[in-house]
Write a structure and sequence with these properties.
alpha/beta; Rossmann fold; 6-stranded parallel β-sheet
């Protein structure tokens, strides 16, 4: 799945739930009434803005469940991603405090390039009648016509756009004007997530860590500990 947006509102206080690679077992709502959100990304590493986006999506879209989908073979990424087992472990730690969060590893297990439309088809078959909502960033929405089967995606899910500003690293390209955004989404139907920006990117965090600079304030403490324990993003000496 394409990389998730990363400039969001500050997350609320953690709850008591835990994320998992399996669907939540205690949900009682029938599929016809359930709302499942999808948020994909490299999560390399997952950081505070990812957490803020997840919380905002759950609250504003009234989600029963939010699937966090670490990217598998990312056809759109020029760089080599951190090994899947580390990104999956960090995602589970980052979203463990959100009861509705489910870290779904299907794209990591899928052979070959991973595409959003394939994931949506799988979830639609697994949960017939469920309302699926796909959360994307403004930069992704601007390039939506270059996704695989964009018309099929809009038939399977409602597109929810989280707009964000560019940051100093250049990792986040400018979005369409917030007053009148024009995204190449088939049918022109999409929902907006209303958020104050946090200009933060995984690229900037990796760069700081590669230079030996701290980034603990930008990460969940459990994620920061995991990175330190496994010596991730450190430049070999």
């Amino acid at each position: 799945m394409t990389t998730g947006p990363v400039a969001m509102t500050q997350p609320a206080a953690p709850g008591n739930g835990a994320s998992s690679s399996a669907p939540a077992a205690d949900s009682q709502a029938p599929d016809q009434l359930r709302r499942i959100g999808l948020l994909g990304g490299a999560f390399d590493p997952p950081h505070r803005a990812h957490q803020a986006l997840a919380h905002a999506a759950i609250e504003q879209l009234q989600l029963d469940e939010l699937r966090l989908l670490p990217t598998g073979d990312a056809w759109h990424k020029a760089r080599t991603l951190t090994p899947a087992e580390h990104r999956l472990a960090m995602a589970r730690l980052a979203f463990a405090a959100l009861p509705q969060a489910v870290v779904d590893d299907r794209e990591l297990r899928r052979a070959g390039p991973t595409y959003t439309v394939d994931t949506l088809r799988e979830l639609a078959a697994e949960h017939p009648g469920t309302t699926l909502l796909l959360v994307v960033g403004a930069d992704q929405a601007l390039a939506f016509d270059r996704w695989r089967e964009p018309e099929a995606i809009t038939r399977l899910a409602t597109i929810c756009v989280a707009r964000r500003p560019p940051d100093e690293s250049g990792d986040v390209p400018p979005a369409a004007p917030s007053a009148a955004p024009c995204y190449p989404i088939p049918g022109g139907h999409w929902l907006a997530l209303d958020m104050a920006p946090i200009p933060l990117s995984a690229t900037a965090i990796r760069q700081r860590l590669e230079k030996g600079q701290g980034a603990d304030e930008l990460l969940d403490p459990a994620v920061a500990r995991y990175i330190a324990q496994h010596h991730l993003y450190a430049t070999p000496r």
